[in-house]
Design brief:
The protein has six helices and twelve strands. The chain folds into two domains: 81 residues; 219 residues, no CATH class. By secondary structure, it is an alpha+beta fold. The strands form three sheets. The protein has an eight-stranded antiparallel β-sheet with strand order 8-7-5-4-9-10-11-12, with helices on one face.
Length: 340
């Protein structure tokens, strides 16, 4: 049961105020009469007694009028105090210490989570001097790998995109909409409608509110709205894609922070197979080729590149200690994950 926020002294004060208010109102109901003072001079002569009696009656009438006025003021003040006391004591129904169901103000709605980033595509180069262009007007496809559908949207002329909590699904069945689930990892790909290249790849973590949405970054995870994809985020995302099965919470079985650490490793100290993958991403993208190592569940006809698949296999075989791995026991067993 929620703890009562009122002290014992506060409760005593509330009860006292209510008692005073009731006493004042009862006094008014009885005519407002208070104990009268006996007329003095009762042992004097008849004339004096008559005069004193008249004076006493006048004084009694005046006193009663003043007493009624006084009691009306007391009743008004104590009535207001009683109302305040009842309100302060949690009156009006409900349970102590909490907002009753159907009563009080509704909780402030939380902003709907979503995804967003700036997508770049490589125009060539080699480690670590890669060049980039924006994924202007590219199709954006994103998925947690949880089903055979993905969400879609379109980037603007600068490669920026933002999607709310729900968007158009591809394919359109069994559901025409795709819903972003907070606390999951999402694979994000920017590509032409043809499915070929150039392509930009990255991953994002969807928080329970927009300020908790994170994207991969070269020096650490960054707010999704200020992130940019590049060759390094593409390599990490492709590695996760290539090592994840379809049809389950595939990309969500990985700790986003571990994937982020791998990006930073690729930026600063990639081994031989990792550098080969980085350079292959840049050259294939510059040649307008696809980077998919295999077709995704949401598009069986997606063009693929077998050489990228081989490069990912070689990175895995290198057994670099920096390589991320899926969480043992699935996403529910992940520890050290981002703040939801």
């Amino acid at each position: 049961m929620p703890e009562n926020p009122l002290s014992n002294d506060s409760i005593w004060l509330c009860h006292s105020v209510a008692v005073v208010a009731c006493y004042a109102l009862v006094s008014l109901q009885r005519g407002g009469a208070l104990p009268r003072i006996q007329a003095d001079g009762m042992g004097a002569g008849p004339n004096i007694r008559e005069r004193n009696l008249r004076l006493t009656l006048k004084r009694d009438v005046k006193d009663n009028m003043m007493q009624q006025k006084y009691l009306w003021h007391v009743a008004l003040v104590t009535g207001l105090l009683a109302a305040f006391g009842v309100a302060s004591c949690g009156g009006g129904g409900g349970t102590a210490g909490g907002r009753p169901g159907g009563g009080g103000a509704s909780p402030t709605p939380m902003p709907t989570t979503g995804l967003g980033s700036n997508m770049q595509v490589s125009t060539g180069g080699s480690y670590a001097l890669y060049s980039y262009g924006s994924a202007a007007n590219a199709q954006i496809v994103f998925s947690c790998g949880c089903s055979r559908q993905a969400g879609t949207t379109t980037a603007d002329a600068n490669g920026n995109f933002t999607v709310p909590g729900t968007t158009v699904a591809t394919p359109a069945a069994p559901s025409p909409t795709y819903t972003i689930v907070p606390t999951r990892n999402y694979m994000i790909v920017a590509l032409p409608l043809s499915g070929q290249g150039p392509q930009g790849w990255t991953m994002e973590f969807a928080g329970t509110r927009p300020s908790h949405n994170l994207a991969l970054g070269d020096r650490g995870s960054v707010p999704a709205t200020s992130s940019k994809s590049d060759v390094f985020t593409a390599a990490a995302a492709l590695y996760v894609y290539g090592k994840s099965p379809n049809g389950v919470t595939a990309y969500d079985d990985w700790n986003f922070n571990a994937i982020q650490s791998f990006v930073q490793h690729l930026v600063t100290a990639p081994n031989g197979p990792e550098r080969t993958l980085l350079d292959a991403i840049a050259s294939r993208s510059a040649a307008n080729g696809s980077l998919f190592p295999s077709a995704p569940a949401w598009n069986a006809g997606q063009p693929i590149d077998a050489a990228i698949a081989t490069d990912i296999a070689n990175v895995s075989a290198s057994r670099d200690p920096a390589l991320p791995t899926p969480c043992p026991g699935g996403d529910a067993a992940c520890t050290g994950t981002p703040t939801p």
